[in-house]
Amino acid sequence: MKENITILGIESSCDETSVAVVRNGREVLSNEISSQIAIHEKFGGVVPEIASRNHVEAISNVTKKALKDANCTLQEIDAIACTYGPGLVGALLVGVSYAKALSYAIHKPLVGTNHLEGHIAANYITHKDLKPPFLCLVISGGHTHLIHIKDYKEYEILGKTKDDAIGEAFDKVARVIGLGYPGGPKVDKLAKEGQANILLPKTHFENLDFSFSGIKTAVINLHHKQPDVNKADLCASFEKTVTDILIDNTLKAAKMLNIHTITLAGGVSANTYIRQRFMELEETKGMKVYYPEPVLCTDNGAMIASAGYYNYINGIESDLELNAIPNLKIGEK
After folding, report:
1. What's the rounded Cα separation, in Å, for the pair 271 and 289?
2. Is residue 318 within 8 Å of 110, Cβ to Cβ?
3. Which of 34, 43, 127, 233 is a plausible cystine mate for 58, CB 3.0–4.6 Å?
4. Is it the case that residue 37 has pLDDT exceeding 90?
5. pLDDT tens digits for 79-112?
6. Rounded to an integer, what distance in angstroms lies between the CA atom of residue 89 and that of residue 91?
7. Residue 228 resides in a domain
8. Rounded to the nearest 5°, which phi and psi values hold at 59?
9. Does 330 map to a domain?
10. Which structural domain range is residue 16 located in?
11. d(C-alpha 240, C-alpha 313), whole Å
12. Per-residue model confidence as pLDDT tens digits over 171-223
């Protein structure tokens, strides 16, 4: 295999159209992102049909810009990686179809890539020295997974949410108290002005699974019964309680497996309070904690190119029958 491998990564699983060029899984040559947040904000959340249409309109220009920024031609690309799940089926199909057409036209390998594996791989870009094994807490609008990364292509899910993903809970809390969409950053910002002085319920299981529907419902009920409740305090209390749950399960897993390296991934890993609390584990528990830079926490092509690189060098390629799988599980092919 050649010394330097350049992957074009395409991400379109939700409301970001992103294309990136990454060398050897860790060196980002370009990472172009076209966000639809302003489009969906008026609806209070992502509208799948609108997301798909905007991907169609954006993907060609985003690809051209990524190649230009990387000072790279299509013929210099070694393989094309694309997200084929999980995600919104219509949105996924745009990226998959475009990647398949590009692969066919320029005679380059196609590498179907799992979106969650992409979020994990974002840490490889930010932290060039990071290598498995480690624990990864994937926290986003659609997922809450605690995963044992045994090797670059070997994963074991230790725990996951039984109901709402943590990002979904953030968005619903933000909506009910009038902060709007996207909820996560707005709750994070307002929480800085408040005190975590409101007792909210924590759901624990004997295993390492999560549940956030109870705390979400508690916040909604409290706001309805006490509409004059201090919103900043409510946000701070919500943020502290869900972070306590995340840390409790992660530390249980670390002790169980005797692992001292923890990574965060996914959109919610950009939350400043969650990052701060996990970083404190370095001093209090002797853990080593990693998380991606903010631009790599949200959906982006660079993380898909990185994860696609590890697929490619391990001989994992796709044919032109590749289809979108909206409920794709991590580790599935």
Report:
1. 15
2. yes
3. 34
4. no
5. 999 999 999 999 999 999 999 999 999 999 999 9
6. 5
7. yes
8. -65, -35
9. no
10. 6-120+297-313
11. 41
12. 999 999 999 888 899 999 999 999 999 999 998 898 999 999 999 999 989 98
The answer for 331, left when phi > 0, alpha when psi is -120 to 50, beta otherwise, is left
The confidence score (pLDDT) of residue 142 equals 86
The answer on 301 and 196 residing in a single domain is no
Pairing relationship of beta strands 27-35 and 288-290 according to DSSP bridges: unpaired
Q: Are residues 162 and 284 in the same domain?
A: yes
- Over range 245-254, report the average pLDDT: 97
Q: Which residue has the tokens 């939700």?
A: 14
**Residue-wise pLDDT tens digits, 138-168:** 999 889 999 999 999 999 999 999 999 999 9
Q: Which residue in 121, 117, 132, 138 sits closest to 249, CA to CA? A: 138
**Residues, the chain, total?**
333
Among 87, 83, 18, smallest CA distance to 55 is for: 18
Split at pLDDT 50, 70, 90, the class of 47 is: confident
Residue 328 lies in a domain: no
Give the chain's radius of gyration (CA, Å). Answer: 20
Q: For residues 209 and 253, what is the distance between their CA atoms, to the nearest angstrom?
A: 11
Amino acid making up residue 244: D
Sheet holding 27-35, edge to edge: 27-35, 16-23, 6-11, 79-85, 110-114
Residue that is written with structure tokens 């660079």 in the block: 302
Same domain, yes or no, for 83 and 148?
Answer: no
Mind spelling out the 3-state secondary structure of the chain?
CCCCCEEEEEECCCCEEEEEEEECCCEEEEEEEEECHHHHHCCCCCCHHHHHHHHHHHHHHHHHHHHHHCCCCHHHCCEEEEEEECCCHHHHHHHHHHHHHHHHHHCCCEEEEEHHHHHHHHHHHHCCCCCCCEEEEEECCCCEEEEEEEECCEEEEEEEECCCCHHHHHHHHHHHCCCCCCHHHHHHHHHCCCCCCCCCCCCCCCCCCECCHHHHHHHHHHHHHCCCCCHHHHHHHHHHHHHHHHHHHHHHHHHHHCCCEEEEECHHHHCHHHHHHHHCHHHHCCCEEECCCHHHCCCCHHHHHHHHHHHHHCCCCECCCCCCCCCCCCCCC
